[in-house]
Design a protein that fits this description.
The chain has 434 residues and is α/β, with parallel strands linked by helices. It contains ten helices and 20 strands. 26% of the residues lie in helices and 27% in strands. Helix 5 crosses helix 10 (420-433). The structure holds zinc ion (ZN).
Length: 434
C-alpha cells in the first residue's frame, strides 16, 4: 500500500461527526459498506468464519475485528476514543433569565472553556422515543443534529471586564457557560419542543434526551500552504479514523498467511476517566475478546495463550510543541506537525509504552519509512493519560501509546498536520496484520 499524503474528504467528513453517537454510526456505515457483519451481543455468535465483524455497545462504543483464514493465534488491538470535551445539556436544561431563553449545560471533560465563547452552536445527540417497543424498555433510539446556529455563549464585553486581557478569561462553569437560544420565544419553549419539532415527533413521545452543543465551523484544510487541518474533535476522531481506515485496508488486503486477529476498539468516556459501561475500563472489551475466542472453537486456556501473544496500540492525539509557549514542553521531546506519529512515554505509567512495545512499533515504522517522534511531558508538570494504561492493566497485554501531533488540544477548534494522518494509518495497518 502506498502512502497517500493528502487528507481525504472522508477524513474531513468523519471529523464532522458532532457526538460519539454520530461517530459510532459513521463507523458502522463504513464497516457495513466494506461487508463487515454486525454481531448482536444479546444473541449467541455461533461459530465465526473468516471475515470482518463488528459489535456496538451503548451506541457510543464500537469494536470491529477480522477473523483470519488461518487458525488465529493472537490479537492485534488498536484502541482510540469517540468522545471529546464539550457542553452537554443537563436533564432539566430549559430556563429563562433576563428575558432570554437559555439551556443549562454541564462541562464534559477537560474543555478549554474560553474556546466555546462567541461560536455559532448547533445541538446534536440521541433521543429515546416511546412507541415501537410497546411502552416497555428504553424506547427506540434516534440520532439528531440541529445543524443551524441555534445558540451562542456570548462573552462579556471588555468594557464590563476591564482587566480581562491582563488577568485572562475566568469562567465559572455554572454561571457563565449557558448558551442563549432566543428572546421572543414561545412560553412552552423547551429542549423537548425544539427537538420534537426537529424530528417531527410528538413531544410526549420523547422519553429521554442525550444532547450536546457543537461548533458549526466545518473541518477544513488550512495554513498558507494548506499544511494544516483545522477542526473540532481531532482528539480523538483523527485516531478513530486512522484505526478504522487501517482495519478496512487490512480487510481488503486479505493477507492469507496472517494468524493475527486485527481488532479495533473505539471507546466512549475517555475524557471523563473511562469508568462506565461504555468506557475502556468496563468489562465489555475482555468479554468481547473472550466471546471471539469461544466462537472460534477455543477455550479459556486458548484465550490466555492468545492474550500472552497479543499487543495493543493505544492511539490518542499528542501535544506538538507550541511556538508561543516552547517553555511548556520538555526540551528534548518536542513533536512537530507533519513530522510523523508520536510515541508517548511516561515513567509514572500515565502512558503504557514500554521499551519493548516501543521497539515493536518502531520496527514497523522503519520498514514503512515512517518517521517517529517521541513525547515525554515536562517532569514538573502533571501528565494527562489515555486508554492505553487502562486497557493494558485490564487485559495484561503489553501496550504502546501513540498519537499524531496537534495544537490546541481540548479546544472547540483544534489543529493538526495534513501529512500525519496517512502515516499513522499505514503504521496501524502494518501493526494490525502483524
Ligand atoms: Zn484524547
Amino acid at each position: 500500500m502506498c502512502l497517500q499524503m493528502a487528507p481525504t474528504d472522508d477524513f474531513l467528513d468523519y471529523l464532522g461527526n458532532p457526538t460519539p453517537f454520530h461517530a459510532v454510526a459513521a463507523t458502522k456505515d463504513r464497516l457495513l459498506a466494506a461487508k463487515f457483519s454486525e454481531l448482536d451481543p444479546k444473541e449467541s455468535w455461533g461459530k465465526l468464519s473468516p471475515g470482518g465483524y463488528f459489535v456496538t455497545h451503548c451506541e457510543t462504543t464500537i469494536v470491529a475485528f477480522i477473523v483470519p483464514s488461518k487458525k488465529a493465534t493472537h490479537f492485534r488491538l488498536v484502541g482510540a476514543h469517540t468522545d471529546s470535551p464539550n457542553l452537554r445539556l443537563k436533564p432539566k436544561p430549559s430556563y429563562s433569565k433576563e428575558g432570554y431563553a437559555q439551556f443549562g449545560v454541564e462541562v464534559y471533560g477537560g474543555a478549554l472553556l474560553n474556546s466555546w465563547l462567541d461560536r455559532d452552536l448547533g445541538l446534536a445527540g440521541r433521543v429515546l422515543l416511546a412507541g415501537k417497543d410497546g411502552g416497555k424498555g428504553e424506547g427506540t433510539s434516534r440520532l439528531f443534529k440541529i445543524d443551524r446556529p441555534i445558540a451562542r455563549v456570548p462573552q462579556l464585553a471588555i468594557h464590563l471586564d476591564r482587566d480581562v486581557n491582563e488577568r485572562g478569561v475566568i469562567l465559572n462553569k455554572q454561571e457563565h457557560l449557558a448558551p442563549v437560544l432566543g428572546r421572543a420565544v414561545p412560553k412552552d419553549f423547551s429542549e423537548r419542543s425544539l427537538i420534537a419539532k426537529e424530528l417531527k415527533v410528538k413531544e410526549k413521545d420523547i422519553l429521554a434526551i442525550d444532547a450536546m452543543f457543537y461548533s458549526l465551523e466545518k473541518p477544513t484544510i488550512g495554513g498558507a500552504a494548506g499544511e494544516f487541518i483545522f477542526s473540532a474533535r481531532l482528539d480523538n476522531l483523527a485516531m478513530c479514523h486512522a484505526g478504522l481506515v487501517a482495519l478496512l485496508a487490512a480487510a481488503a488486503e486479505k493477507k492469507s498467511d496472517s494468524t493475527a486477529i486485527p481488532f479495533l476498539a473505539l471507546f466512549d468516556h475517555e475524557e471523563v476517566g473511562s469508568e462506565s459501561a461504555a468506557g475502556a475500563a468496563s468489562a465489555f472489551l475482555p468479554r468481547t475478546l473472550e466471546r471471539i475466542v469461544l466462537a472460534l472453537g477455543g477455550d479459556k486456556e486458548t484465550e490466555h495463550k492468545m492474550f500472552a501473544r497479543s499487543h495493543i496500540v493505544s492511539a490518542d492525539m499528542a501535544h506538538a510543541v507550541h511556538p508561543n509557549y516552547p517553555e511548556r514542553h520538555e526540551a528534548r521531546h518536542r513533536p512537530h506537525l507533519n513530522q510523523g506519529p508520536v510515541i508517548k512515554v511516561n515513567a509514572q505509567q500515565r502512558y503504557a509504552t514500554t521499551g519493548a512495545t516501543r521497539a515493536l512499533i518502531e520496527r514497523y515504522a522503519e520498514a514503512a519509512k515512517i518517521p517517529i517522534q517521541l513525547y515525554a511531558h515536562r517532569t514538573d508538570l502533571p501528565c494527562g493519560s489515555t486508554i492505553g494504561p487502562i486497557t493494558s492493566a485490564k487485559l495484561g497485554i503489553p501496550t504502546v501509546d501513540v498519537g499524531n501531533p496537534m495544537l490546541s488540544m481540548h479546544s472547540a477548534r483544534e489543529m493538526c498536520g495534513v501529512e500525519d494522518g496517512p502515516k499513522m494509518t499505514e503504521l496501524l495497518r502494518r501493526f494490525l496484520v502483524g
